[in-house]
Design brief:
globular, 9-stranded mixed β-sheet, binds (4S)-2,6-dioxohexahydropyrimidine-4-carboxylic acid, 8-stranded parallel β-sheet, Urease, subunit C, domain 1, single chain, 14 helices, 2 domains, about 25% strand, about 450 residues, alpha/beta, TIM Barrel
Length: about 450
């Protein structure tokens, strides 16, 4: 499809700062052969800009230009756990993987659970982040009534509630406290949905067993019970929900039946790996919460990708050092890195015919913009931020630990050959990654939201 013939050949009088020339651009109207002109970090013009001048020209011939990929679930470990990651290394990993915006989780040390700790992260990210960013505030039993005031602060992507315990100490497991959290504020509450009582009940059942029992401990019912309870509270309070990293076949019909209340996220690793094979091959490197499950669950998640009910993809980038991962299960920590592999993994699935490129864009830019109310991000149209993920859809590359920029130094996908690769990451008109190299210096800014 080519739309360039019908668009006017307009030239900015002072020239553009940047033109992406000759690429296939994925716009809300479909894939079009267009040039994209950028002025002052915003998309100024889409059309035929053959005769326009620009300070910088990016030759996008043979490449696809996508709206910048947003990863709405990352753990970058700063402050407190910076031997695993920090905002600088995590955002570098994001940029190398084609991600232009990340939202970061509050289970750092200390937890991000008050305005000062949020402001600290925002200030730190202004200095060290390669990409745009926002941070979640963690709900606690103590701060419940103050969350409504915190969710609108600069750089806040919303409130995260851990309904079941995972890495760190954040936990709001009792329905009466979850209700208090839901009554404070208006934005969607983002939930880690596993039932704490069931997790605790079952914890001792698997003593001495290997990590392959992780999905039996944290079983399908843990997730379904918690999600059912959250939906009931959502109905009662009128507060909308976003369920993070959905993993079970049992939750999908529940979520589908309540789309007026709930949006949800799926992770690339849950779409790619399956038990028991992943535990046999990767051991505790495949351990995360909620767990990687068997192919029946993976198939259900793919159906939610195919039929449109899943709203966003998130990596749940959760790095841990190899030393920590070497502890015997269940002392081995849960989580795996992923912000850098989200785009190549999912492009490989596009090439395998598992989803269309348009659906990938919907899940990684339009979807997060809709779910979180991001301003001026998520579409390639004039007036929006000039955030682009430029991809070579036919490049054949191998994901390796060496390529991974995360401080943890490993990826569960080491050695995986994929087709489709991010070749440039452009953040508000600045090329921050080109052909695998970081360029310039960190210049990320907080995302703006309609709150
Ligand atoms: O596997 C996980 N790791 N799930 C979470 O909920 C937290 C994360 C982490 O921070 O390590």
């Amino acid at each position: 499809m080519s739309g360039s013939g019908s668009l006017p050949n307009v030239v900015a009088p002072g020239g553009f700062d940047l033109i992406l020339r000759g690429g296939t651009v994925v716009t809300p109207s479909g894939r079009l052969q267009l040039d994209v002109g950028v002025i002052d970090g915003r998309i100024a013009q889409l059309g035929s800009l053959a005769s326009a001048t620009a300070a910088e020209i990016y030759d996008a011939k043979g490449l696809h230009v996508l709206p910048g990929v947003v990863d709405p679930q990352c753990h970058f470990r700063e402050p407190g756990l910076t031997h695993k990651e920090d905002i600088g290394s995590g955002s570098a990993s994001a940029a190398l993987g084609g991600v232009t915006t990340f939202f970061e989780m509050p289970n750092t040390q200390p937890n991000t659970d008050d305005p000062e700790r949020l402001a600290w992260k925002v200030a730190r990210a202004r200095e060290t982040s390669w990409t745009d960013f926002a941070f979640f505030v963690g709900a606690t039993n103590e701060n419940a009534e103050r969350l409504g005031a915190m969710e609108t602060l600069e750089g806040c992507s919303g409130i995260k509630m851990f309904c079941g315990s995972s890495t760190g100490t954040l936990l709001v497991d009792k329905p009466e406290n979850q209700r208090r959290v839901m009554k404070s504020g208006r934005r969607r509450i983002c939930c880690h949905s596993e039932d704490e009582a069931r997790l605790q009940e079952r914890k001792t059942l698997f003593a001495g067993k290997p990590v392959s029992f992780h999905p039996q401990w944290r079983d399908e019912d843990c997730a379904v019970i918690s999600t059912r309870n959250l939906l009931a509270l959502s109905k009662e309070t009128g507060r909308r929900l976003h369920i993070l990293h959905v993993t079970t076949a049992g939750e999908i019909p529940l979520l589908t039946a309540h789309k007026q209340l709930v949006t949800f996220e799926v992770c690339p690793q849950h779409l790619t790996l399956a038990a028991p094979e992943c535990y046999e091959r990767l051991g505790s490197l495949a351990q995360m919460n909620p767990p990687i499950r068997d192919a029946r669950h993976r198939d259900a998640l793919w159906e939610a990708i195919r039929n449109g009910t899943a709203d966003v993809l998130g990596s749940d980038h959760a790095p841990h050092s190899l030393d920590e991962k070497a502890k015997p299960w269940p002392q081995s920590p849960s989580g795996m890195p992923g912000v850098q592999t989200l785009v190549p993994l999912m492009l490989n699935h596009v090439n395998d015919g598992k989803l269309s490129l348009e659906r990938f864009v919907d899940l990684t830019s339009a979807g997060p913009a809709r779910v979180f109310g991001m301003l001026q991000k998520g579409r390639l149209v004039p007036g929006y931020d000039a955030d682009f993920t430029v991809i070579d859809l036919s490049a054949k590359k191998t994901i390796t630990n060496d390529w991974s920029k995360s401080k943890c130094g490993w990826t569960p996908f080491d050695g995986l050959q994929v087709t489709g690769w991010p070749v440039a990451t452009i953040s508000r008109g600045r090329i921050v990654m080109r052909d695998g190299a970081l360029l310039g210096k960190p210049g990320g800014q907080p995302v703006k939201f309609e709150v």
